[in-house]
Design goal:
The complex is a heterodimer of chains A (353) and B (480). Chain A is mainly alpha-helical. Chain A has a domain at 37-151. Chain A has helices at residues 4-50, 56-65, 68-78, 85-92, 97-102, 108-121, 127-134, 139-152, 158-166, 175-184, 188-200, 204-217, 223-232, 235-246, 255-264, 270-283, 289-295, 301-313, 316-325, 331-341, 345-352. In chain A, helix 6 (108-121) runs parallel beside helix 8 (139-152) and helix 7 crosses helix 8. The N and C termini of chain A lie far apart (73 Å). Chain B is built from 14 helices and twelve strands. In chain B, strands 3-4-5-2-1-6-11-8-12-7 form a ten-stranded mixed β-sheet, sandwiched between helices. Chain B has a two-stranded antiparallel sheet with strand order 9-10. In chain B, helix 9 packs across helix 14. The longest helix of chain B has 46 residues, at 2-47. Chain B is globular, with a radius of gyration of 23 Å. Classes of the chains: A mainly alpha (353), B alpha/beta (480).
């Protein structure tokens, strides 16, 4: 039994092995060669960009000629020291044309490099390009565009960012908290649009994301809208509304907010009741002490625990209420009050996290 | 009689040739796909320096769960290294699984533990817990002390850790494993390479024997001179760098190593957490996660990221290595038989049609086929059915191909992530790869056959690996 092709296959295999070993031996040389070539290219571009103030046309030409990846690499090192004029000069002379073009490339790594370039240099004219990159299908490109939006913070980007918040894409891990951070960075500008959105009541998942943003913004003007969602929303919406209110320091002074939180202590879902008790404790809503006392008799253990912790967070008044409960006959409330009064600072911190 | 035997050998030998040919062709495809994946990650890491530039908010918080049983020699170093990880938001949960040594005492002395109440809901039934302790020095460290369960293994303590985890992702790390400082950020890159829901992600395990550590960080990594250890290094390269990387493009990995991998907590709880009776609980959980996501029809990814590295001690004697391989094979068979309905089932997509069949044919049955192949070749030579030239050519082809794959793995690593700074270490690895097929491979076949036998005879048991602790900076790197 002999197969004629077997010898040929063995020869091919040996050849491949020899090639691999040859590659291994020549690799340090080839790598050094590539590095030298790349450094030479970068040095040329750095020299041109350093003179962007004096010779903007030349710098823009060099930026167009260099690959978008090289430009991104150089700008990452150079641009943090720029004061704004350099980027403006580069834009005015069309130095970003190649980068904007690369933003439409089929290759994701070119689009990613484009986002990196725009993160240092984009002006109002590049808003459409950045908006397109924000909605990019590749998560790395969309992430880099978000980084760019945070860096340049152009007013025109607020709408595309809110569009992103409405998109299910923003639910990717890490993406939502990054997006919320960037949008919250717009401060006052974003409060009115969020208030309108909350009043308009989008689908549940979008409302939940908006509630998380509202909690981050911590603006009392948002409290009434959140309070109405806490009363009327779906389960996830109500949980997040209670959590959002605990993020607004002045919510205790907004009657609609405290009324909604106190009302939420009667919610049929224990998760909402637990979240509402936590929020009342965090806000130090003294007027809710009586409601929290009643919550100590809640059928759900977690609600009773959170109510007792909230009372303890209210200070001496809450501690007095807990003390009085330990003398009452309601076994559930009694046991919980005793347990929470016995907790040390470390244990309280454990529950606070 | 002789005639009948000759007939059997003549009829059966082409079957082995076909098995060998198809399997190795598939290995070749896996290698090609892994090169593409490697280039993608390498571009993100080196060309675009992507994750270095993202703000902290872009990284989801992670709970790190460490199951510890009789780990007093290494536990303080391991946990210290974990607490030094460069990652924006994480907690470390160590579950002491009723150790008979002073693991709890070591933890208390090193981290100043104080009892705290359990501030979470118990989602999985994982048995009674003796106490919860928070570190006075590191608020991110929680230690859970549980009694040893009826069934030994990591599953029960990991489930306890999973109950206590407060973040949406959790990572399992072995107590004898040192995770590189930046590895968690690198692992989180899996969220930026796919639009699908990432439900699991694994990093690379490297051999810690022969590597020196300072403050839990690998410094000056070197390949051990001890042959039992050295032989395993190219094996790990092959297994991780292209055995798993390629599966990112073929429907997801069926196995991400439990010594260093990250899972979606909600899904893990939904599928019942780690199964206590499984001896390879990481494989078992990953397969069940695949099943659940496929049955739900939600696009998802269980991916492997090549550059995050965790270092683990591997067996340094032939006996312990044999026990380990035998146990791995029993675990593989156990998981396969429990999920056999996935085999060639279109409902499970590429996992059912490709991944699972590969594990059945290419992993589970491979030692049987290889051993039978040896028998047929020897019998064929004795009976004169196979001539010596043919046998030598075939051996050159088979062993040469294995060497080619091992050397390719070593070179791929060298060209991309280059963990070992010295080229001499890579030459040493190529040396190990060249001799691996002659003796060592046959030993692994034997161990796996024993695993099959023990599984079929239902002889269970864990073979505990002895821990030696990590080498300090002052210690010699060589071990010979």
């Amino acid at each position: 039994m002999a197969l004629p092709w077997l010898g040929l296959v063995v020869r091919v295999e040996s050849g491949l092995l020899a090639l691999l070993l040859l590659g291994l031996l020549t690799w340090p040389f080839l790598r050094g060669l590539a590095r030298r070539w790349r450094l030479r290219q970068e040095r040329r571009l750095v020299a041109a960009l350093r003179e962007v103030g004096a010779r903007p046309a030349e710098a823009a030409r060099a930026a167009r000629r260099a690959g978008v990846r090289t430009l991104a690499r150089v700008l990452d090192d150079l641009a943090p020291g720029w004061e704004g004029d350099e980027a403006r000069a580069l834009r005015a002379e069309g130095g970003l044309d190649a980068a904007v073009g690369a933003g439409r490339s089929l290759m994701w790594w070119r689009r990613l490099s484009a986002a990196r370039v725009l993160s240092w240099t984009a002006g109002p004219e590049q808003v459409p390009a950045l908006a397109r990159l924000l909605a990019d299908r590749h998560p790395a490109v969309a992430g880099a565009a978000l980084l760019a939006a945070r860096r340049v913070r152009l007013p025109g980007l607020l709408d595309p960012l809110l569009d992103e918040l409405r998109s299910p894409r923003s639910d990717r891990p890490g993406r939502l908290s990054f997006l919320l951070e960037v949008v919250a960075g717009y401060g006052e500008e974003v409060v009115d649009p969020v208030r309108r959105e909350l009043a308009g009541r989008a689908e549940e998942a979008v409302t939940v994301r908006l509630l998380r943003l509202a909690g981050r913004l911590g603006d009392p003007r948002l409290a009434p809208g959140i309070g109405s969602i806490l009363r009327e929303g779906g389960l996830e919406e109500r949980i997040n509304a209670a959590r959002a209110l605990s993020g607004i320091p002045d919510a205790a002074n907004v009657p609609e907010a405290t009324a909604a939180l106190r009302g939420a202590l009667q919610d049929p879902a224990w998760q909402v009741r637990a979240q509402a008790t936590t929020a009342l404790g965090k806000l130090g809503a003294g007027q809710a002490a009586g409601d929290l006392r009643r919550a100590l008799s809640d059928p759900a253990w977690w609600v009773r625990l959170r109510a007792a912790l909230a009372l303890r967070a209210l200070g001496p008044r809450g501690a007095d209420i807990l003390g009085s409960v330990t003398r009452e006959e309601d076994r559930y409330a009694h046991d919980m009050a005793e347990y929470v009064l016995g907790l040390g600072e470390g244990a309280l911190a454990e529950y606070a996290t | 009689m002789i005639h009948a035997l000759r007939q059997i050998v003549a009829n059966w030998s082409p079957l082995f040739l076909w098995y060998f040919g198809i399997l190795n062709l598939f290995y070749g495809i896996l290698f090609a796909l892994s090169v593409l994946e490697c280039v993608k990650h390498w571009t993100l890491v080196h060309q675009l320096r992507f994750t270095d530039r993202l703000p902290d908010a872009a990284f989801p918080p992670i709970s790190i769960v460490v199951a510890a049983y009789d780990e007093e020699a290494v536990i303080a170093d391991s946990v210290s290294a974990l607490l030094r990880l460069d990652y924006p938001a994480f907690e470390v949960i160590v579950v002491n699984d009723g150790s008979s040594d002073d693991t709890m005492g070591e933890l208390d002395r090193a981290f100043d533990l104080h009892p705290v109440p359990p501030a979470f809901q118990q989602s999985l039934d994982a048995g009674p817990v003796r106490g919860f302790y928070r570190s006075g020095r590191h608020p991110a460290l929680l230690v859970v002390d549980k009694g040893r369960g009826r069934i030994p293994g990591r599953a029960a303590p990991l489930n306890v850790g999973l109950n206590a985890a407060r973040y949406p992702y959790f990572m399992t790390v072995d107590a004898d494993t040192v995770v590189n400082r930046g590895a968690l950020r690198q692992l989180a890159r899996s969220f930026f390479v796919t639009t699908k829901r990432v439900v699991g992600s694994g990093g690379t395990i490297r051999v810690a024997n022969g590597v020196r550590f300072r403050d839990g960080e690998a410094i000056d990594p070197r390949v051990s001179d001890r042959w039992v250890v050295g032989m395993q290094v190219p094996e790990y390269f092959r297994g991780f760098l292209f055995g798993r990387l390629a599966w990112n493009r073929l429907g997801g990995n069926l196995l991400i190593s439990g010594a260093f991998s990250m899972y979606d907590k909600r899904l893990a709880i939904e599928v019942g957490g780690f199964r206590e009776t499984s001896i390879t609980e990481d494989l078992d959980l990953t397969v069940r996660m695949h099943r659940r996501m496929r049955e739900r029809g939600v696009p998802y990814a269980i991916s492997f990221v090549p550059d995050p590295v965790a270092w683990t001690e591997v067996p340094r004697t032939v006996g312990i290595l044999g026990n380990q391989r035998e146990r791995w094979h029993r675990g593989l068979m156990d998981t396969i038989f429990r999920n056999l309905r996935m085999f060639l089932n279109w409902r499970y997509g590429p996992v059912g049609l490709l991944g699972f069949p590969y594990y059945v044919v290419g992993e589970m049955l491979e030692p049987v086929a290889e051993a039978a192949g040896y028998v047929v070749i020897v019998a064929g030579l004795l009976l004169g059915v196979i001539d010596v030239d043919y046998m030598l050519l075939f051996a050159a082809l088979a062993f040469g191909y294995q060497i080619l794959l091992s050397v390719s793995g070593v070179i791929l690593e060298l060209l991309t992530f280059r963990v070992y700074p010295r080229t001499s270490d890579y030459l040493k690895l190529i040396g190990f790869a060249l001799v691996e097929p002659f003796g060592f491979r046959q030993l692994t076949v034997w161990w796996r056959l024993k695993g099959i036998g023990r599984f079929l005879l239902d002889l269970g048991g864990w073979n505990v690996q002895e821990r030696y602790g990590f080498e300090e900076e002052s210690a010699s790197a060589g071990e010979s």
